[in-house]
Specification:
Strand content: 5-15%
Number of strands: 13
Number of helices: 13
Oligomer: single chain
Strand order of the largest sheet: 8-7-6-9-10-11-12
Shape: globular
């Protein structure tokens, strides 16, 4: 880009200082220092004047918005791996390239998945809250605060991509038996390493697992993949952990089954209608039947910086006249 006018890059949310500094050095970067989500009129103004839009998962970049984009907008460099917030097909119709930031959050998300997998059966947040709130503790007792061990249990992974595989490696080290359902089987070498059992039928796997970990992306095909019917197949002792996307699970059905004692509990880092959280989930959390977190799975300093660096590489590569490494194509392409 040397000798050429710097592209106008509009960034919709506050990013780490290190990333923003580099953005300002390389581009005509317009920052969101207050970190307030852009309103729809603000997004419209951004797409009308920007060369590059850098949105996050909280920004809905749909066909209606893209129809109002100016001629300058040629790249949407998403700050995030998932692109369910962007109508990629509509962007392609307008000649706008879309990129994402894959493969930088796999380990962080897997860490959080494992944390929730431990937190729910072992009642970690319940015990921590008791001491934090000044609750009376008479000392160790053979029968007090008993949870469930996870060693020796069966873990069913829904979506054996990079995150699912990272979860499986951690879970195997904790002594869980690895099972998975995926659109296609993983490589034999990975199956052998993890001693993993593949289930072609999701229904059959759900009925036999002690813990289900949801690690698939949000797509039209995965909307309510764990439907009421499928959740009802699970055993009453089973737990659900979701660090992927909220709409993969029928949230109302999950709540009902936990309330009725037909599921043991859940660990959720994502919700079907984020940032709004179902009030029934909040009530369940107070009864310690579930552990809920505010979408923290990828929230590490290192991960956010890595994401920003990928965004920068995609922008620089695009304006140097090359295909950006993390281009996302429409699903029909």
């Amino acid at each position: 880009m040397t000798g050429r006018k710097k592209p106008l890059v509009v960034i919709t949310r506050k990013l780490p200082d290190q990333v923003e500094t580099r953005m300002r050095e390389l581009f005509d970067a317009r920052l969101n220092v207050d970190d307030k989500p852009m309103t729809q009129p603000e997004l419209v103004a951004a797409v009308k004047e920007a060369d590059v839009l850098v949105p996050t998962i909280t920004d809905r970049i749909d066909a209606a918005l893209l129809a109002q984009a100016g001629e300058r907008l040629k790249l949407i460099a998403n700050f995030g791996n998932g692109v369910d917030n962007i109508d990629v097909a509509a962007a392609a119709k307008h000649g706008i390239t879309v990129t994402n930031t894959p493969n930088v959050l796999n380990e962080d998300t897997a860490d959080m998945t494992m944390a929730l997998m431990l937190a729910v059966p072992r009642r970690l947040t319940e015990g921590a809250a008791l001491l934090k709130d000044g609750g009376k503790w008479a000392g160790w007792s053979p029968t007090w605060m008993l949870g469930r061990r996870i060693w020796g249990k069966r873990l069913g992974i829904v979506g054996m991509g990079r995150v699912g595989t990272a979860v499986a490696r951690r879970a195997k080290a904790f002594g869980l038996s690895i099972h998975y359902h995926n659109r296609k089987r993983v490589a034999p070498a990975i199956e052998d390493e993890l001693e993993a059992t593949y289930w072609d039928s999701l229904d059959q796997m759900l009925a036999r697992m002690d813990i289900i970990s949801v690690n698939c992306p949000s797509t039209p095909a995965t909307f309510h993949l764990l439907s009421a019917r499928r959740l009802e197949l699970m055993q009453p002792r089973a737990y659900v952990v979701n660090t992927a996307r909220g709409d993969v699970v029928d949230e109302d059905a999950l709540i009902r089954l936990i309330e009725e004692g037909k599921l043991a509990g859940a660990g959720l880092d994502v919700f079907e209608h984020e940032p709004s959280i179902n009030t029934k989930l909040l009530k369940l959390a107070k009864t310690n039947k579930i552990v809920i977190l505010p979408h923290m799975g990828s929230a590490t300093i290192e991960g956010r910086i890595d994401m920003g660096e990928k965004v920068i590489i995609n922008i620089r590569t695009f304006f140097d006249g090359h295909r950006p490494p993390d281009r996302v194509l429409p699903r029909s392409a």
